[in-house]
Design goal:
The structure is a single chain. By secondary structure, the protein is an alpha+beta fold. The protein is built from four helices and seven strands. α1 crosses α2. The relative contact order is 0.15.
Amino acid sequence: MSARVDSWVWAVRLTKTRSQAAAACRAGHVKVNGERAKPAQPVKPGDEVRVFHGGRERIVEVKVIHTKRVGPPVAVEAYVDNSPPPPPREEVAVAAVRDRGAGRPTKRDRRELDELRGRRA
């Protein structure tokens, strides 16, 4: 048995909506067995699916095919998760904070913000 890759990715809750899954496929963020996948590409048990969504890559091996969305406990049993662990919270970049009502940033402030965001070399 097989199913469309966009439908399966949505059914096992790797994306929030099916349209997000299809858009990720069209953008090249979904790979099946190392190859870019179109939304209608079939997946079958044993295939490796890589999904880049939400800032991280999920690497899963298909165990069970679902075409309808299932609950989280059932969804977890549909694949083997081989993804690297998410980065710890401490490594997430700190957002720049300005005091409310401080006005428009000066040129110096903008340079500091750009450097903090990694936009300036």
